[in-house]
Structures
1.
Amino acid sequence: MTATLVAEDVRRAYGETVALDGVSLSVDAGEVFALVGPNGAGKTTLVRALTGTTDADGSVSVFGADPRTVDRERIGLLPQAFDPPARLTARELLTYYAGLYDEARDVDAVLADVGLSDDADTWYEDLSGGQQRRTCVGSALVNDPDLLFLDEPTTGIDPAGRRSLWDLLEDLAAGGTTIVLTTHDMAEAHRLADRVGLLADGRLVAVDDPDALVAEFGGESRLIVETDADPDALDLEYPAERAGDSLVVSDVPPEAIGDVVDALAAAGASYDALTWSEPDLEDVYLELAGTDGTRYDREGAGRGRERAATAASTEDAGPAEGDR
Ligand code: ADP
């Protein structure tokens, strides 16, 4: 594999604030690399350093050259904050951006790619938030880039629009486009990325393929029981602790779920719902960059990857969002 992008010991401070504290990274040709991390971790600054749109110490090489000298026809960039003129239509905006390049894609084809054919003649200000973001994504595609940077491409896009953008990005990746994206959506990172880099306080604290990260840092499977039962009153051979309205039993293999149900019955404890969940990338994120106390709060809400373990008043969470 040839590296499309190589960054070594990239550092950037804004006054006293250290935004990037020595980031080294290599992204191969055709790879999809997702940067995740809390607000303020340095993701946008890193994207800017990698695209040569901010000064940084260390070295960055894109297609073997300083990113500032790379032919801009080869790079597409969707910045996080991108505010095009409101009184231009989606088509006019993409036509404008296409006009900045010697060779550009057919604007109608780009509009179709981002799902805007029907609204192409609507003023930008009258498009929904998701349609506006898709217009912005389209503007990064007009030059048919070999390397595409997308800073939070799907923020504000509804689930259907998000999935169609995922399909589009997967098609681009399959066609050989190298993609570096930032996202707060762990399902998005897991689905799209060959490798995920977790940035915290300006450092890459973990980089690997999503499944390997989950295996290493995701923790155990959990059985979440909505009950007010006291774990000490139950005859359980698995570690259990209370979290809000739930009892969280760790490391229960699926075949032992019945043992937990039996222990609840033996103690005369009633429960409203029972959900078994496997660790996912969100657990990795919370383990490496999250704050204490958030870890189980979301369990009761029912995540996509959770599975109904029994029929007992547990609603199935439906198709798994994180599944491929
Ligand atoms: P993220 O994209 O992960 O939210 P950023 O790269 O935007 O993180 O920010 C990293 C840190 O650098 C934050 O503390 C932020 O406040 C600071 N920072 C980013 N851009 C600027 C700037 N132009 N001026 C001053 N501080 C900045």
2.
Amino acid sequence: QTRLPLPPGFLFGTSTASYQIEGAVTEDDRGPSIWDTFTAEPGRVVDGSSGAVTCDHYHRWPQDVELMRRLGADGYRFSVAWPRIQPSGSGPVNQAGLDFYDRLVDALLAAGITPMATLYHWDLPQALEDEGGWLNRDTAYRFGEYAAVMADLLADRVTHWCPVNEPNVVTLNGYGEGTLAPGKALTYGAIPVAHHLLLGHGLAVGALRSAGAAQVGTATNHLPVWPLSDDGADHQAAAVLDTLWNRLFADPILLGTYPEGLGDAMPGPVADDLVTISQPLDFYGVNYYNPLGVRAAPEGSPLPFELGEIPGYPTTDFGWPVVPEAFTDLLVDLKERYPAIPPIIVTENGASYATGPDEHGVVDDQDRIDYLDAHLRAVADAVGRGVDVRGYYCWSLLDNFEWADGFTQRFGLVHVDYDTLVRTPKRSFDWYADVIRAHRAGTA
Ligand code: GCO
């Protein structure tokens, strides 16, 4: 394994999310979340599955920490299930829920792994959704209170924090399109959700700072939007989607402003809120998977754009095009568009390939290795072009519950047999361990 040209001290990690791996959804007084509700509705998840058991990480976490120790990764990004901490989204905290994360963090530290905690990876307490969820400004305040609880518990040991995972996906897919929980198809009616999630982010940043958290950042999904032809209409459609998908969430945090025209669509004292939203951060977390192809929608469509396939690239089992150079361009573009951007950490990147164990129990996922290798090189290229990237967290440690795609997509470095819950490290796991080791040896 040759060392990748990444800076000394570069953090290599893996990423997961509570609802996708924990299971045990009724245990120890965890309250119901919008994902429990959503997955119980027929037709929402392709294979009819849910996160009720998934990887059973809630019980098997010592084994998973041991896997990470073997991997030799510096960091681990996990998320806290809000309904374990406050079963109905506000008020008294549930000690058993706190204890789970307290033990997990101690075990990570004992294994030499730096914890990074996400506070909201989509499992909103159902009780808050019943009050309007993220359409309701109060949810942002409840989130700030919950963030303060977690900061008080863990800021002495957890160095890295991501308040909200991918607010764009929650807004546009959860409330705009309805393909993710809570499954509301409000189209432009979802726009206030963006503002409340951003306000929640800002309130959480404040709470984390007050508790002395060392590194506060984001986990922002960025998909470069590519027009599918040279046609002016397709370019314009791409600009609209780029604004809604990327800039609507990055501009307020990094510039303290909304893209033109969108500020007026936001509810509440927007100018004051933007001060809260744009507080300085220690890192900017980027989740990158692929570019999106877009063309103008036919006359009379509810939205001005339409997604389409980008020809000419290999695809993952999810059908997502594999375009590592778009990752380099994205990182360079972020630096150009937002000159004051803090250091970047790649908080997610990875690929879905279904490869399972062969007759010898070996999971030979060469296509995942190729994907990860090319994308780590794309990061190195961005560093070479002057972008300050400090870490890379692979999605994901384990195969897990892939939202509306249930168990049909596997992103793990470790294979999970959902009948026996046996974990089998894939070849990509050993490859990643080698990359990390070579980097340390070469930069020591
Ligand atoms: C996220 C992601 C993950 C997904 C991964 C693959 O929002 O952080 O959606 O939860 O599992 O991106 O789709």
